[in-house]
Prior knowledge:
Elements: E1 5-10, H1 16-25, E2 30-37, E3 40-47, H2 55-96
Antiparallel strand pairs: 1-3, 2-3
Helix pairs in contact: 1-2
Amino acid sequence: MIMTKIFEFDDSVYSLDAVLATAYWCADMAIVEVHQEDNVLCAKVSPRNGKVLDSSFYETFQTMVVHNQIRHRLEEKFAPLEKIIIEKAFAPVSSKE
């Protein structure tokens, strides 16, 4: 079993938010230390309290960083549209106040 693994993510592709969101996602199983060196985000992933992390966990960690990065970009892209939809949805409620 792998005990500790270090991942490196190019910060021109991946955001700190995506890596931190992934760290939060796996907080019950692992301790994730994140820091930045030059143009690289480094994530050191270690098992929490005697847990055993196998290679599939680490593969899932990488996949979740990609997932969170895509989600983050989509949220940024569609935020104006979401705001308009919410304003229109609550317009009848807002006008009665």
